[in-house]
Amino acid sequence: MKPGLHPKYSPVNINCVGCGTKIESRSTKGRDYSIDVCSHCHPFYTGRQKFVDSAGRVERFQKKWDAKKAKDVSDAEKKATKEASAAPAVEAAAASK
Ligand SMILES: [Zn+2]
Asked: Ligand 1 centre and the CA of 19: distance in Å?
């Protein structure tokens, strides 16, 4: 190796904030650091659904989504009752002809 060219490659500890796993590795960064998700807790490896979210975006979306679903259900009910009440009127109009 050419001297003075390559960065120092030293052992570091990587701490996962999501599950608390400590991983020993080597890095040119020179100090320990933390990560949000690792292979022990990422949904891809665990197969379980888990939201990796620190800003509350997922919760906000789910709130919005639930509100939309509730609105769709109530709209469908309204439409059904409207059609049910409109049907006799149509039959009566057809009968009067
Ligand atoms: Zn982890």
From this structure: 4
54: DSSP letter: S
Helix (H, G, I), strand (E, B) or coil at 10: strand
Question: Which one-letter DSSP state was computed for residue 67?
Answer: H
> Cα of 15 to ligand 1 centre, how many Å?
8
Segment 54-83, tens digit of pLDDT:
667 778 888 899 998 888 888 888 888 887
Mode of pairing for the β-strands spanning 22-27 and 33-35: unpaired
pTM, full prediction: 0.46
Distance (angstroms) between ligand 1 centre and the Cα of 49 equals 14
Assign 85 to helix, strand or coil: helix
CA distance 64 to 68: 6
